[in-house]
């Protein structure tokens, strides 16, 4: 008995945009033939054979004819086959060709529509492809026609059709396609934008006019997958697009920070400026812990590095533990320890909490931890010790360099520590991009957590626009979300 083939649309890139039916079919299929996937998470739950038939510009693992033959072969073995395709199977996805080849062999085939990037990518970038009073029509074309095609696109007609024009798969021919539209009579000042990796975490929007969009794309280093949108609706992105927030903290914290940023309605740009480097735990740590009344952890990172010592649990059992911030408290809870959090994350708040309860305080934290905090506690009569568990170093992350090449794309710079500010500027100076960064910081919103961070920014000549009263990342996002 012949099997059945499902031509399934995977959507534009975000695995959460898979339809329920697509997810169910992937989980029950005997075989899944997948394109160059926008996210490996789309294959989570698959129990069958996985075959990569991905195609990209200039690189084909299989020809279309070979894919057709493989679909037929697997179906004739009696298997349930999912052909997973980016976007929608029938919108420039060659799904129709696959369906015809299967029908000619008498093999049942069913199409499962997918969210098409032609509409999803612009709207995720704040561009509605139609909008009352602006555009009441939409034209979708391929920008990468096969050589020798019998009926080539009439670019002169496209230039005069009006409404919104979306050009898919046209980055390799961007200059030629734009020139054809201009030669066909479309005005050079017509708003135009390129959306790169629509639906991905790394989504980018480059906006301008038709006359300069190709040059802007070159400067930004735009690469496929990307689409070109032409028309007055592009102007709406300034009001509707999520603001882009540059996250500069260490990579270990980046995934959760990006998730929080998206939850609060921002588009995160992940560009770690710092990395955390462990330091050897001193041999006299047990004695120093024994000699103190209170242990203070200033970050979740410090907790995790301290807990790498198996014997530390017995050392902490009888001590008063203080967490600076709720994240630090949660990190200690995860390891079975309760702690107290001062009402105010400052030397004054900590001194108020400890007054009359202990005399000797030991910090377990970064080597670059605020000395101001220690000095203020000493002024209040406490004995203060410090154990540097790790140090903050430059990240050397290529994502930071990418941001520094195009800092003007950022709407908000989020500085979570003084080191994020210092190492961002130092890297900009190393790359010869300090002036470009300074201009971007001047035009963007600058947000900072804590007075030491604000002081470091002031030292390098950057004005802080937003600093929440509560020194946490969620509080920073809440403050940024409030209407100005």
The CATH architecture of the largest domain comes to 2-Layer Sandwich
CATH superfamily of the largest domain: Tetrapyrrole methylase, C-terminal domain
From the 3D structure, determine the CATH topology of the largest domain.
Methyltransferase, Cobalt-precorrin-4 Transmethylase, Domain 2
Total number of beta strands: 21
Distance between the termini: 66 Å
Amount of helix: 25-40%
The number of helical elements comes to 20
Percentage of β-strand residues: 15-25%
Placed side by side, the strands forming the largest sheet appear as 3-2-6-1-7
**What does the largest sheet look like?**
5 strands, parallel
Mean pLDDT over all positions: 90
* Rg, Å, rounded: 28 Å
CATH class assignment of the largest domain: Alpha Beta
Judged by helices, strands and strand pairing, the structural class is: alpha/beta
Report the principal-axis shape.
Answer: globular
Q: Which segments are poorly predicted (pLDDT under 50) over 5 or more consecutive residues?
A: none
Counting structural domains, the number is: 4
